[in-house]
Amino acid sequence: MSKDTLSTASARHPKPPNTTFAYGTAGFRTIGSLLDSTVFRVGVLASLRSAKLGGKTIGVMITASHNPPQDNGVKVVDPLGEMLPQLWEPYATQLANSDNLEDDVRDIVAREKIDVAQAGLVVVGMDTRETGPQLLRAAIDGIEVFGRAKSFGELTTPQLHYLVRSHNDPEFGEPSENGYNKKIISAVEEILRLWNVQEPLEITVDAANGVGAPKLRNLSSDLINISVVNSNTQDKSALNVECGADYVKTNQKLPANVQPRDHQLYSSFDGDADRVVFYYTDESRFQLLDGDRIATLLASFINKLLQQAKVKANMGIIQTAYANGDSTKYIQETLQIPVDFTPTGVKHLHHKAQEYDIGVYFEANGHGTVLFSEKLISELKSTHTSSPEEERALKTLVLLTEVINQTVGDSISDLFAVLLALRIQNKTCVDWGKDYTELPNKLFKVVVKDRFAFKTTDAERRLVEPAGLQAKIDALVAAYARGRCFVRASGTENAVRVYSEAASAADCADLGARVCELLE
Ligand code: 16G
Ligand code: ZN
Description:
alpha/beta, Alpha-D-Glucose-1,6-Bisphosphate, Chain A, domain 3, 4 domains, five-stranded mixed β-sheet, 18 helices, 40% helix, globular
């Protein structure tokens, strides 16, 4: 190990005093100006991860997603575009907080039996935040202690995942941003041609003043006509402010700068373009189409194609506790597709979805994708068809596996999947909104002394600690028609979240408020 290099390089990235860092659900995330040493150390860890895997390409993404402009964050992406395995998260935390970096690196190298000479390439990307460029340089500095760095500059998070995967697996696509664009556009256009669609796909997207805006512009074509609002990435203080998927979902209202025409579909991305929600207005009433709706739309569309293609595949939908109870009921009773629940956080949903031939996973907040197993994809490619209708459905399914990002939830590819599902089924956004009605629901945030005292089970739907609290919640819930309520510690903020739903909006608000009182 080139000890000198590590200590010399690390001296350029001193750790701020009195700060502790924890690698959580979304990697490290805090005020951007505090993150220089952490990002440097994540760079070191990423090259160790590459060495551990015999030189495979690893990714580092610098982003704080939907968080406010002054925040930033960093996470590591594994070779096939998955999140860093949970076993390695403590190493990230260990290095970020280390007061003796050389010893801690040596410790990890010994424990994981790493030959640092094997360290290969680490690809790096960032969103559009003010602290991004400086943190990008810190990451590169860290990576180059053992490995090689390649910066792609500004990227959406899913683009970085794509780039990592395509560097390791050339069949996945060309390892460039252009390769990403080409893969999606050509699959979308081919589907449109198969279905003889003449009119271009059209939508207005609120890009949260984030990186999704410039990236969407690269995706126009004769058949794709997207207008982007909230596209100001120059004004660094505008990111995610009064716009973006998180704002729209949390406040259940239109973002700034969208003046809707009734019955027309709009969409919002978050700051790093891995979340998307849709909406329309109906006589000025705002109708949100969130992750639950995207899951049901895509699952039923894919089901129809499977039937037309006469292909059998086992499909499951993965939800979290935040999924609206009426969406779960609709999936189970009307679509007749099995539902699994996992804790919040993409890695949990993604993992579960991999158990199916087709695993559809979406968090209600709009993060999700559809995973197709390798086995099914090769079956689809080798199936012989006996009618043009079967042939078209089969081809569409194969092309959808290219439109839909197979590594992580992706605003851009989810946007196209939704537009295709609507257009091909001749379904309007109003039809989509009427697939099922939604139970009134409300989210509360409570600041408590120690959020780690709240321990859950059953995919975060029940508390096991503090002792006795769940029984009190159960007693409250029982008093409301179709009441449901759960409490969980946030993984990204120092707070506890309370979600309530009930048959009426008044009951839902009342139930949530009473449960919040129990926490004080
Ligand atoms: C992270 C997760 C997101 C989840 C959110 C919950 C990833 C990439 N992101 O942002 O999926 O919805 O945390 O936040 O896994 P919370 O724990 O603060 O409620
Ligand atoms: Zn995001």
